[in-house]
Amino acid sequence: MSKALIIVDVQNDYFANGAMELVGPLPASENVKLVLAKFREENLPIVHVHHLGVSPDATFFLPGTEGAEIHANVKPEAGEKTVQKYYPNSFRETDLLAHLQGLGVKDLVITGMMTHMCIDATTRAARDLGFECTVIGDACATRDLEVNGAQVKAADVQTAFLAALSSFYAKVQDTTEYLAA
Predict the structure, then answer these.
(1) Is 85 part of the annotated catalytic residue set?
(2) Is the confidence at residue 1, as pLDDT, over 80?
(3) Is position 13 annotated as part of the catalytic site?
(4) What is the pLDDT of residues 76-118, one digit of tens each?
(5) Is 57 annotated as catalytic?
(6) What is the pLDDT of residues 123-177, one digit of tens each?
(7) Residue 85 and residue 50 in contact, taking contact as beta carbons nearer than 8 Å
(8) Quick one: three-class SS letters along the chain?
(9) CA angle 67, 73, 90 (to 5 degrees)
(10) Catalytic choice (13, 85, 120, 140)
């Protein structure tokens, strides 16, 4: 069984002074970089997912902006697949599924941003499509949220979404644990 690394939306707008700044994107990207290095060393498939905000009300990942560019820590190298998407689910209206099936991939290692949105949607879709998933929790980042006037800190959002994914959709590990295996 082949495995692939999926790096979701590690783009400049999520970092300091970006249009949708997250909590802790730099350390998360450094962990993505470590996992990416392992996949490159082992010559395993890597997919960079690149989100573009094209709806009329989009406020970040606007095409042609520096904020929409993939962050320097995880820039694709020659031969690495890049999938452009327009929705939280990386499989929706993209060639990601066909690409992975063409490679015979059965296991996905998922990293990136935002945990509560694109990581969640992509992981759930992947599992529903028959993939075994591992999410590297500390190689993901999210942000503070609000619901019905209640403020939810990013750390709590992160914990809740990773816990929910770990109940059926994915094995959740941290970078050190994953790299030691």
Answers:
(1) yes
(2) no
(3) no
(4) 999 999 999 999 999 999 999 999 999 999 999 999 999 999 9
(5) no
(6) 999 999 999 999 999 999 999 999 999 999 999 999 999 999 999 999 999 999 9
(7) yes
(8) CEEEEEEECCEHHHCCCCCCCCECHHHHHHHHHHHHHHHHHCCCCEEEEEECCCCCCCCCCCCCCHHHCECHHHCCCCCCEEEEECCCCCCCCCCHHHHHHHHCEEEEEEEEECHHHHHHHHHHHHHHCCCEEEEEEEEEEECCEEECCEEECHHHHHHHHHHHHHCCCCEEECHHHHHHC
(9) 65
(10) 85
Residue-wise pLDDT for 23-80, tens only, equals 999 999 999 999 999 999 999 999 999 999 999 999 999 999 999 999 999 999 999 9
Q: Which of 118, 133, 138, 140 is catalytic?
A: 118
